[in-house]
Amino acid sequence: MRISNNSVYENIKYNLELATQAMIEANNVVSSNKKINHLSDDPVGLANVLDLRASLADIAQIGRNIGTGQSWLSAGENALTQIEDLLAQTKTLTVEMSSATKTASQRQNAAATVDGYLRQVASLANTQVNGRYIFGGTVTNTQSFTFDNETTPTLMTYNGNNTAFAIRIGQNSDIEVGRDGADVFGTNWDDDNIFKTLIDLKNNLQTNNVGGVQSAMNMLDDNLNGVRTKIANTGSKILRLDVKQSIIDDMSINYTERKSKIEDADIAEAIMNLKAKELAYQAVLSSSSKVMDLSLVNYL
Questions:
Q1: Residues 99, 171: one domain?
Q2: Long-range Cβ contact pairs of 9-13 (< 8 A, separation 24 or more)
Q3: Per-residue pLDDT tens for 197-211?
């Protein structure tokens, strides 16, 4: 049976296309260092890779959330610790000024010191992280606390809300990293409002009201206990985030390794495979040239 030249040409063309495609695919594996470059390479493997990529993206977002939370909690802990120190200093000063041996002039001077403490506490109550207020609940773009009068304040107004700012650290898990300022410092009508305690103490010192100075000591004790509770609570949240960060770090490593096993190529093996495909391609060219006795095949 005689085979036509056209059939021979078509067969040679088909074999060359197969060899060329195999060489291109092998080259793609080497250049990308990936076994899966197209859906047709491994449909099931690609689906698994896409799922793992989505999981890694979710973990990365949680990691960013944790980083934000750690910054907020650290800033909050630092602010509360400084406030605790200021209240403790105020308490010491109050005990000293409640003594009958102190003069009106000394209490006037102490009033100026308390005014300084008051303004420092106010500044700390307006602590920001990356331009966002951490003691304003979810109202993070507005100054949390403002005096009614900056020169001679008689009242501190809370401008936030009663919902603490929270971050997502899991599919169904949030943690509060900001604070409801009213819960920390008290509302304007609370007797244990920190600002009211300091403002009243300053006024009693200025008017030489010893009874008022003495009554402030109990209020300061309440304020200190409240702040210390918040500090302890913040510390436990920092620990929780540290543990969560460790967990997602382990998950990220696990998912990355699983993804790598599916899609990453063994580069040494891939190079050997490419060389084999190149040799096969050259062999097809050579055999085709001999069969057809056409030198032009060498230039395909």
A1: yes
A2: 9/292, 12/288, 12/291, 12/292, 12/297
A3: 999 999 999 999 999
